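In full, the data.
>
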Amino acid sequence: MRFLRRRKFLVKKKLQLSLLVTTLFYLALFVLVVGVALFLPPFLDLEGGGADSRKAMQAATQILYLHGHFWWPVLFTLVFIGLHSIRTSHRFAGALYRFEQVFENVAKGVVPGPVRLREKDYLQEEAQVINRMLEALRTRIHTLQEAQQDLRAAVAGWREVVDRGLRDEAMKRLEDLAAREEELRRRLDCFVVVPGDFGATREVSLPS
């Protein structure tokens, strides 16, 4: 099986183990309720029927039968559901792991390429949203880089005419420099820095 050949079963260990424990807890609770419902009546019959009564013999036989046929299916089910829980959690834990890598890279100032999830991974729609964010970020950074290059060229031209002592030309270049600075400021205005708690619900007016 491909699942058993996977080298790393737990990508986000804390999250996946927490989900596994929760799943097994609810399953064990269900088994406990079913076990009590199955074993309690014959135990009560065994206690109240007397050692030699036919009812007590039937109750003992029923208990032995349940004991011999109930626990192995329960154990198999626990193992199966536990493995399936890890496999299922891996489909979104792997996606979360890739999202974290993207966020860490952006925090370092690196805009990575698109997030690529496996075909059966969950959070596919969220990955598309992140990819749209990355594409928009790359586009805006590219426009800023272009504006910065234009500003650098304008500064170089202004310095050249100043060194040559051309006052009128220097004033024209200075006006061009101011225009380039204004263009760079306009492009920077496309970013909105929201102070405070990002988890809070708030409306943000984005520039057009």
